[in-house]
Amino acid sequence: MWNAELNSRSPEKKRKERIDRGIKVRSSDVFALSSWREMLYLSTPRLLPIVGLLILSIALSHYWQRVLLSVSVFALLAISWDILAQSGMISLGQALFFGTGAYFAGNMNHYFGWPPYVTIPLATIFGGLLCTLFLVPVLRLRGIYFSMVTLVLPLMLVRIIEATRIFGGTEGLSGLGPLPNRWVELYLIIAVLLAALFGFRRLMNSDYGLVLKGINDNDRSVMNAGINIYWFKTQALFIASAIGAFAGAFMTHVYMFVGMPVFALDYSILPIAAAVVGGMGTLAGSMLGAFILVPLSEILRGIGGLRIVFYGLFLVVFTVAVPEGIFHYIQRKYHQFERWVEVE
Amino acid sequence: MSPSPLLKVSGLYKNFGGVQAIDDLNFEIAEGELLGMIGPNGSGKTTAVNLITGFVKPTEGEISYRGKAITGWPPYKIVRLGIARTFQMVKPFYQLPAYKNMIIPLYSPRVKQITGGKFGDRDAVALDLLEEVGFERDAFVAYKAASVLPQGYLKRLELAKAIALQPDLVILDELFSGLSLAEVASIVPIIEKLRQQGKTIIMIEHRLKELFRIADRVIVLNYGKKIAEGNSNDVMDNAAVKKAYLGAEA
């Protein structure tokens, strides 16, 4: 009936059809895809970051490869922020995770002489555990109260290091063991970033992730299901802080230095800006945000003092123009792709 | 009444600042009983539920379930014993389809404990449970986002979430409020079916006519005190109840 009506109206017997619906149904329920084209439609969004990063890693100059390292680190921090935000914890202190991981790795390397391939995994786990321990007592706080604590903790740790002169004090620890070469640095961070993106996206879309998101939405309802929300929040906190700690430990060995700047506010604020610009709640959006904001900041370096003005202006324009975030916008457009089909 | 009640509330007090929300509340409920709890607005019915389910800690008094003191336990532990409740204000996860709303209760340790973790795909179980409470499978209502569902379905969803926990005691907090007569009439059989399965039920209601038809016993609260108890006829003939509901001259 529907077809007949269209037939009478279009002499060339063609009509537009959304391509995503059929593909979605067949891939999620029937598990039967009928053509390479459909496979390509499904896999393109997943292949894009993988292929893109591999091409970038080869194509970029040495300087921009360094920028790519820092972009990836901020992308990890933004993913870590997004996981917390999805679980109902708005953090203003990713620097806590970053700095703790950095100091763990730096100290293990400096005092025990352990190589990076030992310190980075250990710092990831123990840095994650320590940050979780720091924040567990305030898990019962909601909203802005939790945020305030996360904001204050890294600032406190800096002052403790400054006052007690532990871990190198204001000088920091320098001459730490480097990673073998720049290619290892580059591919290590790319591999971890992609693993974190796909792994945690999968986790957040599972039933376990649904429980975490439920806590954010309506924690009483989740409690009413016999689920201990504090235990689930603790797990989310550990995941997020371990990601941040990895980023810190990694950068310690890239810079071969760890010092008080690792607790700087940049590491707390930029991930939030990245998540907002890129689009919250998808992890991919947060990563995309970091891939826009960090290089932008590098490009603007050339214009000197006005840099921060342009940067701020860009942030404002983006949040006003695409308030949902760039990723959500692109995703919607991608799902709305249409093609001409013959009408039988 | 059986010798050992399923739930026993004795000498319960709760004050919020200067307001005495619950004032020396005592009652028991036997296994398999359907107890109605009524009272004017602000009489402390929901607070009583919050106290039993652990969402609010009592100022004084004791609550015991199967002879075990559960006073002051956190909600998630109480649920694991087999006490499930619905909320008066339904607040589903609006952006999710109705059946995905069921995943969280199905993820509960309570369900795992009862089924031994072998109950199949959560989505499939969710759809079955929703069909039980009247989400017509053929009309694909369960696949619709909670945000587009009418209040009647949201209340059913709330009921299904409680049933999913396979409770022994179900506390329904104003399940019928905001529903049309027809909707209420279609939910009543679901509650009767729960009774046939041997579940104990506490119903808090303002819809007295429907409640009196199914309740074994009714207790009446006013200003946090129990002012009457008995079967529906006794309660409605009680002078104190008339006074509470209709004012002093009645």
What does this structure look like?
- The complex is a heterodimer of chains A (344) and B (250).
- Chain A is globular, with a radius of gyration of 23 Å.
- In chain A, helix 3 (36-59) packs antiparallel against helix 8 and helix 13 (284-300) runs antiparallel to helix 14 (307-321).
- Chain A has helices at 2-9, 20-30, 36-59, 62-86, 94-112, 116-135, 143-164, 182-205, 207-217, 219-223, 229-255, 266-278, 284-300, 307-321, 326-335, and strands at residues 14-18, 173-174, 257-258, 338-342.
- Chain A has a domain at 65-266.
- In chain A, the strands form two sheets. In chain A, strands 1-4 form a two-stranded antiparallel sheet. In chain A, strands 2-3 form a two-stranded antiparallel ribbon.
- Chain A has 344 residues and is mainly α.
- Chain B has 250 residues and is of the alpha/beta class.
- In chain B, 36% of the residues lie in helices and 24% in strands.
- Chain B has a six-stranded mixed β-sheet with strand order 6-7-8-3-9-10, with helices on both faces. A four-stranded antiparallel β-sheet of chain B has the order 2-1-4-5, with helices on one face.
- The mean pLDDT of chain B is 89.
- Chains A and B meet through helix 9 and helix 10 of A and helix 2 and helix 4 of B.
